[in-house]
Amino acid sequence: MTAADMPEPGTEAHRAWLDSLTGDDLLIIHLPPGYQWMLVLASLEKRLLQGDMEPGLRLRLLESLNSMIHGLITADMLAMIQPMCDTAYQIWKEAKTLDREGDQACMASFRVITSWRVFNHFLKLNPSILDAIRLEDQQRGAAASRVPRGQAKPTDTYTRI
Amino acid sequence: MTVRQNKTLDEAVRAEAPEWGPAMLALPTDRQRAFVAALYDDDAPRKGDGLLIFAAAAAGYGTPTSSKKSLSVIANRIVHDDRVQAAIAEFSQRSVRIIPPEAVRALKDLIRDPTHKDHARGIAMVLDRVDPLQTMHTVKVEDNRPPTIEATQKVLDRIDELMQRVGLAPAPKVVDGECRDVTPQEART
């Protein structure tokens, strides 16, 4: 995986880079950033659930996890995601420092966490997320890696960092 | 009008208004003061209907046989005097200050008359002043500016540092090459 080597989107180098992607990289780049965020969030919530907390908060976290099962994310995928490790949690907290106080949308941290480079960090630290993405690919039956090159490319509408 | 002319208006003015303001006192004659006071007389006609002629006659200008035309000329000369105009401005201010009691009485009459077309308006006016409607505005200021490029880069660098600490990120690439000092001229070329 060439995590930090993503060229500027919209450039010729970026198109060439997209064409060069294979295997897991292709799966990752085809996964919409909203789902990437949710997979990371699932690992975070599982980490939080390991600690002591009031039953009300625990219920909220469990309900949050349950609500993630929609679209591409299935219960099986969610079940295989392991809790976030300390380093990943630190990365999460670093990214969250970019959000302004009271910012419900968390767009700043969203852009960082779902960026190619940082999301790949999460995958390295928590390979279970990549396993979940692979499972999603199997479940969908139409693996992005099996799509002939040039026919299915991620759009550039979302500017990745 | 002839009655006023006959009862020595200068004296009447002095008696009726014992305390003039500085502008009125600055007028050179009592007749000019009487002229200014006559402009505000309850019996005075409106401007354009002979107000200045009335004031000039009431102040004792001209003669009993003076025509309206000649009184008009006299009155115009007086009213265009800077000192008279200052006195008029001063008198107007003082007159306005004594209007409120009359206004309050009129408002009371209006409120007491339920058949008046502005009855409700009068009530609302009073209530607005006695117990004004209070409106509270809560202004929420949202700052939606994205973080600066520098701040984002700082966070990304910190994330890379965390990854390097656990041995999962490649070290920054070292640019290899030979270095030598160049003169400014060489640098330009």
Summarize, please:
The complex is a heterodimer of chains A (161) and B (189). Chain A is an all-alpha fold.
Overall pLDDT metric of chain A: 83
Helix content of chain A: 55-70%
- Per the principal axes of the C-alpha atoms, what is the gross shape of chain A? globular
Count of domains of chain A: 1
Tally of helical runs of chain B? 11
Number of strands of chain A: 0
What labels describe this entry?
heterodimer, A: 161 residues, mainly alpha, globular, disordered C terminus, B: 189 residues
Describe what this molecule looks like in 3D.
The complex is a heterodimer of chains A (161) and B (189). In chain A, 60% of the residues lie in helices and 0% in strands. Chain A has 161 residues and is an all-alpha fold. Chain A has one domain (12-146). In chain A, helix 8 crosses helix 9 (127-140). Chain A is globular and about 50 Å long. Chain A starts with 11 loop residues before the first helix and ends in a 21-residue tail after the last helix. The model of chain A is unreliable at 155-159 (pLDDT under 50). With 189 residues, chain B is mostly helical. Among the domains of chain B are: 2-97, no CATH class; 101-130, no CATH class. Helices cover 59% and strands 0% of the residues of chain B. Chain B contains eleven helices and no strands. The termini of chain B are far apart.
Annotate the secondary structure layout.
The complex is a heterodimer of chains A (161) and B (189).
Chain A: H1 12-20, H2 23-30, H3 33-50, H4 55-67, H5 75-80, H6 86-96, H7 107-113, H8 116-125, H9 127-140
Helix pairs in contact in A: 3-4, 8-9
Chain B: H1 2-6, H2 9-16, H3 22-25, H4 30-39, H5 51-59, H6 68-79, H7 82-97, H8 100-112, H9 119-130, H10 149-165, H11 184-188
Helix pairs in contact in B: 2-4, 4-5, 4-7, 5-6, 8-9
